[in-house]
Write a structure and sequence with these properties.
heterodimer, A: 316 residues, mainly alpha, 3% strand, B: 449 residues, two-stranded antiparallel ribbon, two-stranded antiparallel sheet
């Protein structure tokens, strides 16, 4: 039991930190630019594919740095030459643009790398056991993943609170007009935020690509979850994104491990339910089966009951 | 509120001007308008009656294609009530389509089991199912507009999809639930064994639904939808609850989506979990945006175009989804009014003296545009083929021209067409802008884009 709890907790933390890396960029883009970026998970996917391709040529460590930079450049180009022009059309236009972009990037990935998952294996340089727990060896790359995401949190937090650009961004969250009135080049800050957010997502993709299957569908599978994290954590809040990612990561990993259903609970309470009852099927669903629903339930409830999110400063 | 939102609210009047339809004019012109509307409805009805007998469409395939278009048109129209009329962008509209389809397929199973109900009424079960679910979810999701509505709709969509995959007994999961549309009481000897009979059933319900939606837009509630879209604060100030208006239109849209789902169940005799999935929600979004959300015919135009592309383009190229995505992006970037918006932009110019001029400018600009497109298509096709079917070798046939992708020549030719076409297009485009300016007679006609 203790072993199960420990490993579920560890895996939950790893998954949660991965979600955090994705959502921290999205929450910045969203809160600052008001853009619900559906293509954010596509940047994650591009990171995974770019690092795979670069890794073949120049090895893992350089790819870990270069792939996010490349994706960041892609993000800057998207903001400068695409998004900026549709923002005249309002929210709907922007959402449609990023939605179309996500669709297009998935198709382009199919065009370049094919429809099947690529063999994005953990490179030998980081594939060794870091420590042993209950006789099971824990791989180093998962530890690396945790270290990078914790480093990212610290970096973002400090950059936000201590640097000049961070202060401008923070001010723009609450007093956008004042910031531009004070003479800051707001469009350039937008490009910067979009590029940085994309690069962060790509960094998550470089190390997350090993843990998940690297295939053209990975963006579509992960995209909605990232929105959940941002909404639950609260718009524009980096600590909120961290808390929400951990929460969802841990809930999901634990739910998968739980093999109980409402039926079991009713049985314990001494209420038998006949097989013919119309509620039998609903009650027989195991928590493990219901795991995919939990984040979306959380999303809908959060938006209805507390639109600010856990640690947000303003409503979504 | 972000910087961009602020900037937007000042420019709101300008951008939203294109969405407002012309206000009803004097009584005389209103009567004439009504006559024109009746005439176009009758013309549409007659056209739909003869269409399955037109050569080329009189096969089973053609009639099945027309049936699919009819279903898609009802679905798209219901979506344009939300997006076009009320400004609600939903990412989960397939929920109401799919659950309506499930209601209909379960009713069909009951009919197969001996329930004495004629098949033509089955789509009504879909509408009832869609309405019931729409009332249930709408009460929660329409409490907020804008981005929050979009997100909740996304969450509800994912939620229902996951739930459908879990409730195997109700939904049949990936395999789906099947029923037989011919087994049951036959009204007037109609057994719906032929696609033609099914087509006419779909046309009947599609016309009823389209007429009802057309009528709905013109009711006071329909007008309030526009008001809530354009300026919710002002709508609230004159005493309307924006939330009530959103809820009403949401329930109506869910009902018509459910009707489309019911038609889907009758047409295919199978409903699977993907009927409520995100892909279908995305497809209807594509249809309405490409057709044009702010015009009634836009949704129909989009439904016809996308269904046709899905069926026929996929025969020609494996990369059809890529082209669909590019087409969608082009519409979003350059023609936010959609295809219908483009048509409407040109309609008032038809009788202008400068119109032939404009056509000539279009013809000149279209030549480099075609070259550019040909180059892009060639590059995409070669790349797509090489990466998705590497085992098929490098010899590729495009439009009966055989080429070998192992040599540099096809790549060079494609790049030349693309870059040369682009440069030439940039030189010819100012001519179009100038001709547009002359045709509209406005000083500030940057609208040619």
């Amino acid at each position: 039991m203790l072993e199960l709890v420990t490993f579920s907790l560890l895996n939950g933390v790893v998954y949660g930190l991965l979600l955090f890396m994705l959502s921290s960029g999205l929450t910045l883009i969203w809160s600052m630019m008001g853009v619900l970026n559906f293509a954010h998970a596509s940047m994650f996917m591009l990171g995974a594919y770019f690092s795979y391709q670069l890794g073949l040529a120049i090895g893992f460590w350089p790819a870990l740095v270069i792939a996010p930079l490349l994706v960041g450049a892609v993000g800057a180009a998207i903001e400068r030459y695409g998004l900026r022009h549709v923002h005249r059309q309002g929210h709907v236009g922007e959402i449609l643009f990023t939605f179309g972009l996500a669709y297009l990037i998935a198709e382009l990935v199919i065009m370049v790398w094919g429809r099947n998952p690529i063999e994005n294996r953990v490179p030998a340089t980081i594939d060794f056991p870091a420590f042993a727990l209950f006789g099971t060896r824990y791989p180093f790359y998962k530890v690396l993943m945790m270290a990078i995401s914790v480093g990212m949190f610290v970096f973002l937090y400090l950059a936000f609170k201590r640097t000049r650009v961070g202060l401008v961004i923070q001010a723009a969250l609450t007093h956008p007009q004042m910031v531009s009135a004070l003479g800051h080049d707001v469009p350039r800050v937008f490009v910067l935020v979009f590029a940085a957010g994309s690069a962060l997502a790509a960094l998550a993709g470089v190390i997350g690509g090993f843990a998940l299957l690297t295939e053209p569908n990975m963006a579509a599978a992960l995209g909605p979850i990232v929105f959940v994290v941002v909404v639950v954590g609260g718009l524009g809040s980096i600590p909120g994104a961290l808390v929400a990612s951990m929460l969802i990561g841990i809930i999901q990993t634990f739910a998968v491990a739980l093999d109980h259903s409402l039926l079991d609970l009713l049985r314990v309470l001494g209420i038998p339910l006949a097989r013919t009852s119309p509620f039998y099927e609903v009650c027989a669903i195991k928590i493990a089966q219901a795991a995919p629903i939990i984040p979306y339930l959380l999303l809908v409830l959060m938006l209805i009951l507390r639109p600010k999110g856990l640690m947000g400063t303003r409503e979504t | 509120m972000s910087i961009r939102e602020r900037a937007r609210s000042t420019g709101a009047q300008i951008t939203q001007g294109r969405n407002t339809r012309s206000a009803p004019g004097s009584p005389v012109s209103a009567d004439a308008g009504a006559m024109r509307t009746y005439r176009s409805w009758i013309a549409a009805g007659v056209l739909l009656l003869v269409l399955p007998h037109v050569p080329g469409l009189d096969s089973n395939f053609g009639r099945s294609l027309l049936s699919q278009m009819g279903i898609a048109a009802v679905f798209a129209l219901s979506y344009s009530l939300l997006l076009g009329q009320t400004g609600l962008l939903s990412f989960g509209h397939a929920v109401y389509f799919g659950l309506g389809a499930y209601a209909a397929i379960h009713l069909m199973r009951a009919i197969n089991g001996g329930l004495p109900l004629p098949l033509p009424l089955v789509p009504l079960a879909g509408a009832a199912g869609g309405l019931a679910v729409g009332l249930l979810f709408g009460a929660v999701t329409t409490r907020r507009a804008g981005v929050v509505f979009t997100l909740i709709s996304l969450g509800v969509g994912e939620l229902v999809f996951a739930a459908m995959r879990m409730l195997q007994g109700f939904s049949g999961g990936e395999e789906g639930v099947t029923a037989n549309r011919s087994r049951g009481p036959h009204l007037f000897g109609l057994d719906f064994a032929s696609q033609l009979q099914v087509y006419y059933l779909i046309v009947f319900w599609a016309l009823v639904a389209a007429a009802l939606m057309h009528f709905f837009i013109r009711t006071p509630v329909g007008r309030m939808c526009n008001a809530v879209r354009d300026n919710p604060e002002r709508a609230e100030f004159i005493g309307y609850s924006a939330q009530r208006v959103r809820f009403t239109v949401f329930a109506a849209a869910a009902m018509f989506a459910g009707l489309a789902g019911g038609l889907h169940a009758v047409n295919y005799e199978i409903v699977a979990a993907e009927a409520v999935g995100a892909a279908r929600s995305g497809a209807v979004l594509l249809m309405v945006c490409i057709g044009g959300a702010s015009h009634f015919v836009g949704a129909i135009l989009g439904a016809i175009t996308i269904t046709w592309l899905q069926v026929s383009l996929s025969d020609y190229t494996a990369a059809w989804q890529l082209y669909l995505g590019l087409f969608f992006m082009a519409i979003v970037l350059f023609a936010p009014g959609g295809l219908a918006g483009l048509v409407m932009m040109h309609a008032p110019l038809l009788r202008r003296a400068a119109f032939p001029d404009l056509l000539r400018a279009y013809a000149v600009a279209s030549m480099p545009a075609v070259a550019m497109l040909a180059g892009a298509v060639m590059l995409l096709e070669i790349n797509y083929r090489l990466s998705t079917q590497p085992e098929a070798g490098t010899r590729i046939t495009l439009l009966r021209v055989s080429l070998d992708a192992a040599t540099p020549w096809p790549w060079l030719a494609a790049a030349l067409l693309l870059v040369g076409g682009f440069l030439a297009f940039r030189r010819t485009w100012p001519g179009v802008a100038a001709a547009w300016q002359r045709a509209t007679g406005e000083a500030s006609a940057g609208g040619a884009r």
